[in-house]
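Lab notes, practical 5.
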Amino acid sequence: MTGTQHGNDPEDEALARAAVDALIGQLALAPKPGLPDPRDLTARATRRDHSALRWSARALLPGLTAMAATARRTGEPGARLRADLGAIGRSTEHTVALTGGGHRGALWTLGLLVAAAALRPGAGPADTTALARQLASHPDRRAPRRPSRGSTVSARYGAAGARGEARAGFPHVRRALTALVEARAQGATEPQARLNALLTVMSTLQDTELLYTAGPMGLRHVQAGARGVLEAGGTATEPGAAALSALDADLQARGWGPRGSAPLLAGTLFLDAIGARGTARPAPVHRMP
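Output from the prediction step:
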């Protein structure tokens, strides 16, 4: 890799495809308490159409490919690369908006992880998240100077938010990856293992979306519900599955969506996919029966 390399390496698109497949895998998982999943096509009505979310997820591919290529050519997680990633991200957000929108949080998480993976191909999850942390530590000096809902809520409640999560090296992604591996080792099916990983994130994440819609008490309620599923044995056990069903029904009735957790699960599945093979080939998407 050199700074004079032109064009995209095939690995750049492979990393981007692994990231998009991880996002689609997250969308395909069910039942996700309070989050869009395939049931929205039939029995449930939520604010976002699930098929549209799957369609718009694919619109991330060119932008993520460009992020990987830029990282590979730049070669270090400095301020220059951070600025370039921000510019690509804003352009990608515009493109995704034309296809129905969504996935802003996933673009932030996956963009940093894809760039980090391109900087050091074959690195393990700890090194990849450490590189992403270095990237996130640089301010995006070209970003518009307007507060977002997430930044406003973060300031009000002292929550880390998406930026804080990245600047800490994605601790929830690392915890979720551990939960994913442990659940598989204990005999859980792939969907059950992924749901355990999601609940691991939900159980401790200071989700700014939840804080905005439900306040601190609502956030604690959701965190306690997620912990309850895990403490009951996780989704592979009958008590855990029953607790998951109850939590799902509760959040649907309240209209609460722990939306900050979903992008972090996508990031977890991305690191799992590239780490399992030492390459960017994605893992197959598993769907609930």
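Observations recorded by the TA: The chain is about 65% helix and 0% strand. Residues 151 and 161 are 7 Å apart (CA to CA).
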